[in-house]
Design goal:
Layout lengths: L1 H7 L7 H25 L2 H14 L3 H13 L3 H14 L4 H13 L3 H14 L5 H11 L9 H4 L11 H7 L1
Helix pairs in contact: 2-3, 3-4, 4-5, 5-6, 6-7, 6-8, 7-8
């Protein structure tokens, strides 16, 4: 009997609980497909899946997967708002703050990077990661990297690192 109702379209309308259950299923499908696609290296498809899953429901782990995919695709401008959203949700998360600061460096927004690293350093004074990122910014590693004369001496003509004994004989 139920077969004929489904076949001829005389089934009863879905209730609100059924619709909520369907949206939850769709979210899980998009999230799981995105994770599988990311693991297989299909980054564009993973980005689409995570974006559709976030349209259904805002979820921090899904957003972090989307950020990871965007960074792997080198779409730093699209990753910044997603990281900012994650940082707004958890302002004490040091890893998200440093990832956002590093992404600001990739987008050549050095003032924001500096402000965020200073804020992270003041909020967690015992951690070395903000200091290291701040030093990279100060040394210009996120900008155009041009090795100085002293760092050129570390490499021989084959671009391999020379042992310290080489320098002991020279100087």
């Amino acid at each position: 009997m139920g077969f004929f109702k489904n076949l001829f379209g005389t089934s009863e309308p879905k209730t609100e609980a059924d619709q909520k259950n369907d949206t939850e299923k769709m979210f899980n499908i998009f999230h799981d497909d995105g994770v599988r696609a990311k693991n297989m290296g299909e980054l564009k498809f993973a980005e689409q899946c995570f974006t559709k899953a976030l349209e259904i429901r805002d979820d921090a782990p899904t957003r972090s997967y989307l950020v990871e995919v965007l960074i792997l695709l080198q779409q730093y401008d699209e990753a910044v708002p997603q990281l900012q959203h994650l940082l707004d949700a958890a302002p004490d998360n040091l890893e998200v703050a440093l990832l956002l600061a590093s992404t600001y460096g990739r987008t050549k927004n050095y003032e924001e990077e500096q402000a965020l690293t200073d804020k992270s350093k003041s909020s967690t004074p015992m951690s070395l990661a903000p200091s290291i990122l701040r030093a990279k910014l100060h040394m210009g590693w996120d900008k155009t990297f041009r090795p100085s004369l002293s760092s050129r001496r570390l490499f021989n003509r084959k671009n391999t690192i020379l042992p310290l004994s080489y320098f002991a004989r020279r100087f």
